[in-house]
Amino acid sequence: MNFQGRDIISIKDFSKNEINFILKNAEKMVEYAKGKNYIDILKGKILSSLFFEPSTRTRLSFESSMNRLGGRVIGFADPTATSQKKGESLADTIRMADSYSDVIVIRHPQEGAARLAAEFAEAPVLNAGDGAGRHPTQCLLDLFTIKSEKKKIEGKNIVLLGDLKYGRTVHSLAYALSLYGANLTFVSPDSLKMPTEVLNECEELGAQPRNTSNLEKSIKNADVLYVTRIQKERFPDAEEYNQVVGAYKVDKNLLKNSRRDLVIMHPLPRVTEINPEIDKTTHALYFKQAFNGVPVRMALLSLVLGGKK
Amino acid sequence: MKELKIPLINNGTVIDHITSGNALKVLRILGIPENLSSTVSVAINVKSHLGNKDIVKVENRELETSEVDKIALIAPKATINIIRNYEVAEKHKVELPSEIIGIVNCSNPTCVSNYNEPVKSRFKVINKDPPQIICYYCEREPEDISERII
């Protein structure tokens, strides 16, 4: 399977076989991601890291990944210091980054920005989140985390909780988990339900997701509880946000009837949706999940740049 | 004797089998009445053996491909008849291409195609009848395509 030069824009651009291939490569990267061994297969390569929106984990893990592979990183994390501020189009910024580097990572508030960037760049473009749209590398690291922890994804009972309407990670994840044949339950306040088009996509892939607002009942037999933050910045209306913030809280009391091997995931940052008392329990998987961003992104960078291990 | 509801035309285009009720949207696509230079006849809710339909006749104008594509978006069963000297010189059904470029605006206000970028709007056709399209950039589907036609 050859990924050299390929853009990573949407999880939907990949077949299940291709995703499995990426996950297998990520597994091989774990020892290097942890710094136990050194590898320099991307020595001499430059990554443009273009973050037009704030990010902690995605940006740092991409930069860590490139450095762990022996490559270098240029870029910005604050667009106010760039020519975009002077009215430069995204297309022109991309043309410039393309001429300065071998691979481009972009996070942008406008949906479809990464797809547009890929049109103007010869170098491969990796989408690090475009507005409320796609975030394929998060989806891949989520799949990697579930697979590593539960050995397989097929047939697992997975509950997605929180803002299922505006949350960008859950749409891609619901699609990908359907591709793998997981049993899905969507738990959200009524006003933040999974959009119909996402439900339709899941059903087209053979999944039969359940929609509910009852969290306690839903997690009884769950293998994975995937919690998302209710994101204030995605709400067009502050009143709508105020009505739903704090609707669900995951704490020890909630988990007393859950399975012992239930794992809790969260793309982070979290605010109040997971009580810190969970952090030290065996259920908490979110920090390991955040680490998994490194081996997965290392695998992607090495694949699209043709780096051989 | 049959009553002739719409007069025959000498030269021009007859758009037949328009989904009933959509004739006025077709006129909007053709830029009528703003670009009116010839006679236009409209029949709404005409009985036919295939159910009710609308008909639009435009004199002295043969439709361009981009106009036909637009019509296919709102009236996927329409037929285009090019009339020359009172005879049907060409007849074909409208057919949506697999991709629609520069014809429909994305309804998503945060889609990158709605910003100042050097690209035309671009949609993938996922269903031809009824027409369903998704934005190439943001992957959203406009709720009412006819409202988004440029």
How would you describe the overall organization of this protein?
The complex is a heterodimer of chains A (309) and B (150). Chain A is globular. In chain A, helix 2 (57-68) packs across helix 10 (286-304). The model of chain A has no long low-confidence stretch (mean pLDDT 93). With 309 residues, chain A is an alpha/beta fold. Chain A has helices at 16-33, 57-68, 90-100, 113-120, 136-150, 168-179, 196-204, 215-218, 238-244, 286-304; strands at residues 46-51, 72-76, 103-108, 125-130, 157-161, 183-187, 210-212, 224-227, 263-265. In chain A, the strands form 2 sheets. A 5-stranded parallel sheet of chain A has the order 7-6-5-8-9. Chain A folds into 2 domains: 11-134 and 292-304, 3-Layer(aba) Sandwich (Rossmann fold), CATH 3.40.50; 136-290, Aspartate/ornithine carbamoyltransferase (Rossmann fold, 3-Layer(aba) Sandwich). Chain A is built from 10 helices and 9 strands. Chain B has 150 residues and is of the alpha+beta class. Chain B folds into 2 domains: 12-93, 2-Layer Sandwich (Alpha-Beta Plaits); 99-148, Aspartate carbamoyltransferase regulatory subunit, C-terminal domain (SH3 type barrels, Roll), CATH 2.30.30.20. Chain B has 3 helices and 8 strands. Chain B has helices at 23-29, 65-74, 145-148; strands at 12-19, 40-46, 53-59, 79-84, 87-93, 99-101, 122-128, 131-135. In chain B, the strands form 2 sheets. A 5-stranded antiparallel sheet of chain B has the order 2-3-1-4-5, covered by helices on one side. In chain B, strands 6-7-8 form a 3-stranded antiparallel sheet, covered by helices on one side. The radius of gyration of chain B is 17 Å and the shape is elongated. The A-B interface holds A 10, 12, 87, 89-91, 108-113, 115-116, 119, 130-134, 197 and B 108, 110-113, 115-119, 135-141.
CATH topology of the largest domain in chain B: Alpha-Beta Plaits
Content of β-strand of chain B: 25-35%
**Portion in helices of chain A:** 25-40%
Mean pLDDT of chain B: 88
What is the CATH architecture annotation of the largest domain in chain A? 3-Layer(aba) Sandwich
Query: CATH superfamily assignment of the largest domain in chain B?
Result: Aspartate carbamoyltransferase regulatory subunit, N-terminal domain
Q: What is the molecular shape of chain B?
A: elongated
**So what's the overall shape of chain A?**
globular
The arrangement of helices and strands of chain A along the chain is: HEHEHEHEHEHEHEHEHEH
